[in-house]
Amino acid sequence: MGDDSRPPATGYPVHPYPPPQPASAANGYPQQPSSAYPYPAPPQQQPNPYFYHHNNNNNYQAAPPPYYVDQRRSVFLRRLIAGMMAVFIILGVILFITWLVLRPKFPEFRVDSAAVTGFNLSSSVSGAWDFRVAVSNPNSKVSITYEEVESNLAYDSAFIADNTLAPFAQGKKNLTTIRVSFAASGSYLNDRTLKALSADRSDDGVVGFEVRIFSRVLFDAGIWRIRRRLLRVFCDDLKIAIGSSGSGNMTGGAKGCRVGW
Fold first, then answer.
1. Which domain holds residue 94?
2. Terminal-to-terminal C-alpha distance of the chain
3. Do 210 and 180 contact (CB within 8 A), yes or no?
4. Is the same domain home to 85 and 185?
5. Where is the domain boundary, 87, 104, 121?
6. With 90 as the cut, is the pLDDT of residue 41 above it?
């Protein structure tokens, strides 16, 4: 028999706990199958255009971005331009120093003598002129070559005759005498020039002629050369006393000429 000496329990009646309900059932929604993923699916990752798949393995290798390629090109171009500028500056300095050391000078031209024969003046002019021209190379380190030498004779800038001279060369500190000859037969002169020439001969028989010499020259100092340039020589007011026979010689001694490019 039981122990009736214990007092009866007072309070709320004891009921057994109900079985746990699923969360979906508790909220009034049907329970999803247990195989469903309880979280939303992650977004699909878009392929990166800067990655490519290597054929030999499954790894991805990053390709250089465009701005990095452009930056490398700009650096290369800057270095190339800087290198070219440095080369030009060095060459310029070398040429300048070479020019200072050599410092080529113009050759010197001087008419030592002149003569005319068979001079005749009417409505035109005829005669034969012969000039002896001394050419001096004042350079001690540079030789000079004269090519395509042309010359002409004039009075008061009016053309009378021309001639082609033989090419020649000069060594360092060299003096060469060349012969410059002209022949005219009925060379035309305008009325103003004819009157001026006739007046000069009538006064004292002294007529001033002009000789022009043009030549392509090459200055040579061994490994250093100046490109061919056109040399111009102007020998003005070469006075020749012409007698009644039509012959005469230069007066006043030797006369220098102007030389330039």
1. 75-104
2. 152
3. no
4. no
5. 104
6. no
Give the separation between CA 179 and CA 149, rounded to whole angstroms. 12
185 shares its domain with 237: yes
Whole-structure pTM over 0.70, yes or no?
no
Q: Is the domain of 157 the same as that of 254?
A: yes
pLDDT tens digits for range 181-209: 999 999 999 999 999 999 999 988 999 99
Assign residue 127 the CATH number of its domain. Answer: 2.60.40
Q: pLDDT value at position 222?
A: 78
Q: Quick one: which of 181, 200, 180 has its CA closest to 189?
A: 200
d(CA 244, CA 236): 24
Q: How many domains does the chain have?
A: 2
DSSP 8-state code for residue 33: P
Regarding beta strands 60-62 and 143-155, do their DSSP bridges make them parallel or antiparallel, or are they unpaired?
unpaired
| 164 and 229 co-located in one domain | yes
**Residue 124's closest CA among 163, 161, 164?**
161
Position 51 scores a pLDDT of: 47
Q: Which amino acid is at 156?
A: D
